[in-house]
Amino acid sequence: MPDLPALFWLDGRLALVTGASGGLGLYFANVLHAAGARVVLAARRVERVEAEAARLGERAHAVAMDVADEASIIGAFDRIAERDGVCDVIVNNAGIAITRPALEHTAADWDGVLDVNLRGAFLVAREAARRLVAAQQPGSIVNIASILGERVMPGLASYTASKAGLLHLTRGLAVEMARHRIRVNALAPGYIATDINAGFFETDAGKAMIRRIPQRRLGELQDLAGPLLLLASEAGAHMTGAVLTVDGGHSVNGL
């Protein structure tokens, strides 16, 4: 039998998490750090990630990165390379949403969401992969998608389109990167309980949404820790092009 805990251990790995100034990104950075990885927290608001990196202490650093700006991405990877080396775990977490009816969606709304959620994810993955290939190192790219990449919700046209595109981008990159020993997978959370959405899920509409989830509960951040580590670590060594859905059965109940 293999050493099962060791399969999930990330000792010696260098992980980059985008959008790490709060929410899922900050949680993912903490999980990877707890699993033994050196972690780089990236975000536009560099003061936030610097504070979080200082709190984590050893094996954590921060870098300023705007995923909507190609030059910012390349510059951030250059700074990481100078200080830490080549990132071999990349969590493409940065994302935004604009909630507005499609008839009121502006071109700027559309471009802003797609630039971060899809174009930005591609540019980060491409830059990371270029450096891994040059260093002849294997790696794992985890794109943070959503169940709204495979189902829709009114008022989120640009967001759902971006996440659907991200799922297909994941599959396409997986095919191209396999020969370089770079795995590319997606983690697709359902509705996760956070401080931001707590108020909504106390309303009648929010409670009705929870009742449509077969497990009859929202996801918790800790529900994403195991799936993330599976995709990032050697435990998922034969997984690429996969979409790992974590939603309590929401996306398969047809409601």
Tags for this entry?
single chain; alpha/beta; Rossmann fold; 7-stranded parallel sheet; 7 strands; globular
Description of the molecule:
It is a single chain. Helix content is 42%, strand content 15%. The protein contains eight helices and seven strands; from the N terminus they run H-E-H-E-H-E-H-E-H-E-H-E-H-H-E. Helix 6 links the parallel strand 5 and strand 6. Helix 5 runs parallel beside helix 6. The mean pLDDT is 95.
Provide a short characterization of the protein structure.
This protein is α/β, with parallel strands linked by helices and 255 residues long.
**Helix/strand class:** alpha/beta
State the end-to-end distance. Answer: 42 Å
Give the SSE string.
HEHEHEHEHEHEHHE
Number of strands: 7
Under CATH, the topology is which? Rossmann fold
What's the CATH architecture?
3-Layer(aba) Sandwich
Strand content: 5-15%
Query: How many individual helices?
Result: 8
Question: Uncertain regions: pLDDT < 50 for 5+ in a row?
Answer: none
CATH class: Alpha Beta
Main beta-sheet annotation? 7 strands, parallel
Mean pLDDT: 95
Give the tally of structural domains.
1
Largest sheet, spatial ordering of strands: 3-2-1-4-5-6-7
CATH superfamily: NAD(P)-binding Rossmann-like Domain
Radius of gyration (Å) = 18 Å
Dominant shape: globular
- What's the helical proportion of residues? 40-55%
Question: Helix and strand layout, with pairings?
Answer:
Layout: H1 4-8, E1 14-18, H2 23-34, E2 38-43, H3 46-56, E3 60-64, H4 70-83, E4 89-92, H5 107-135, E5 139-144, H6 157-177, E6 182-189, H7 204-211, H8 225-232, E7 243-246
Helix pairs in contact: 4-5, 5-6
